[in-house]
Amino acid sequence: MMNRFFGVCVFLLLGGVSVVGQIPFGYYNGAAGLSGAPLKSALSHIIRGHTKVSYDNLWTAFYTTDDKPDGTVWDFYSDIQDGSLNGNPPYVFVFGTNQCATTPGYEGACYNREHSFPKSWMGSIEGDTMYSDLFHLCPTDSYVNTRRNNYPFGTVSAPTWVSQNGSKLGPCSAAGYTGVVFEPRDEFKGDLARNYFYMATRYERRIAAWETLDPYGDAVLDGSSYPCFENWFKNMLLAWNTADPVSQKEINRNNTVYASFQHNRNPFIDHPEYVDFIWGSSSTVILPEPTNEAIDFSAHNIKLQWTDATGGLLPDGYLIHASIIGFSDIQAPVDGVSVPNDPVNMNVLYGVKEVLFKNLLHDTYYYFKMFPFSGTGESINYKTDGDIKQVMMKTGL
Fold first, then answer.
1. Are residues 119 and 222 in the same domain?
2. Minimal CA–CA distance to 355: which of 321, 304, 307?
3. How many CB atoms lie within 10 A of CB 212?
4. What is the pLDDT of residue 151?
5. Between β-strands 390-394 and 137-141, what pairing exists: parallel, antiparallel or unpaired?
6. What CATH number corresponds to the domain at position 377?
7. What is the pLDDT of residue 286?
8. How far is Cα 350 from Cα 5, in angstroms, rounded to an integer?
């Protein structure tokens, strides 16, 4: 398989912008040299396990994640990018003062918390990680939010309703889908596309199961972990990502979410080129199933080294069992039961590629087996079938 190789870029924000929360050095090292599904899986490994913000605390988070330069609310569904509409915005929300208590029957009354990736598509309930993930939640006009409902985003040429800022509701005009869609303003389309690419990446292990949870979600999702989206929707997101490039607003928001709340990042804001490397003309289509094992498993003074698994769905790490009796003495681990580190059991994260067993018996043969795994705790899932890697090594005198 031919992969496109590229270096890790560090974006420098000029013009006096705060450097707090910028991309940590080496944050994307695990993605270097990859494209297609392997790149998406590598990015998923980097950004998963973020700090969860409670749904109630989103109100407070919005004060710093979605504030315009004048301190008022930035709203995808009713605002415009520079905060004005020919110098006269249709209306402006003030944090706290205009926070919704109930859903009003008219536009411009108050703002609420919008799942730009609808919660019904995920079967999500409050408390789920994705239910309050700030990379797809934002403050929006409550009435416009209800008009958007859980319809997909799309393009509309014959709207049945138009918001005060020009967002449109109506039948989809994009090739491949004719159902009702919601079209935001052009200057927010790239933002929302990168939100969706984030969701497909951050929740890679769950998104395939979401396809049939909601009919509108079914129109967008294809039931796979890659490419995740139906062609009509994927092509539209790619076009939106190109036509509306990353703005300073997105960069600032990404940095704030990382530094102050979730401690993970949206890779497609930091590296817009990742979109094309995964879903566009630069991506390499491969089988989505993980099949390859670690190779060149060898020992040197009971320092075990290997080359990480590549292709498809990558493991989170490896459990390595040791025995002084023989390979047949090493029992396969049980799914859902984590094995703690001890003198004869070591858990090693993907990317480390070596482990040192210490305090072993002198002049003794040790037998080792390697079991790739995904997940942690009660959700841990071990790969115990196929060609289990094993090696034998004798300690010194």
1. yes
2. 304
3. 11
4. 98
5. unpaired
6. 2.60.40.10
7. 43
8. 20
**Cβ-based burial of 318 (10 A; exposed 0-12, middle 13-18, buried ≥19):** buried
Alpha carbon distance 171, 177 (integer Å): 9
With residue 114 as reference, give the H or E element that holds it.
strand 111-115
Tell whether 335 and 387 lie within a shared domain.
yes
Residue 307 structural domain: 295-394
| Residue 351 region by backbone torsions, left for phi larger than 0, else alpha for psi between -120 and 50, else beta | left
Query: How many domains in the chain?
Result: 2
Residue 137: C-alpha distances to residues 66, 116, 191, 206, 287 (Å): 10, 6, 12, 18, 32
Tokens of 322: 């040791």
Assign residue 225 a region (left: φ > 0; alpha: ψ between -120 and 50; beta: otherwise). alpha
Residue 83 lies in a domain: yes
| Statement to judge: residues 82 and 172 lie in one domain | yes
Which parts of the chain register pLDDT below 50?
1-19, 83-84, 284-288, 296, 298-299
Give the residue from 226, 254, 279 where a domain finishes.
279
Give the chain's end-to-end CA distance (angstroms, integer).
45
What is residue 132's predicted lDDT score, i.e. its pLDDT? 96
Q: At what angle do helices 58-65 and 248-256 cross, to 10 degrees?
A: 140
Query: Kind and range of the H or E element at 119?
Result: helix 119-122
Regarding whether 303 and 240 lie in a shared domain, the answer is: no
Same domain flag for 222 and 323: no
What is the phi/psi pair of residue 172, to 5°? -70, 135
In the prediction, which pLDDT does 269 show?
97
CA-based nearest residue to 339, from 314, 326, 322, 359:
322
| Shared-domain flag, residues 49 and 157 | yes
Q: What's the token pair of residue 295?
A: 């190779």
CA dist 46 → 51, 134, 192, 291, 293 (Å): 13, 17, 21, 21, 20
Quote the pLDDT of residue 302: 86
Question: What radius of gyration do the chain's Cα atoms show?
Answer: 24
Could you give the percent of the chain with pLDDT greater than 70? 87
Written as six digits, the tokens of 207 are 């998104």
Helix (H, G, I), strand (E, B) or coil at 372: strand
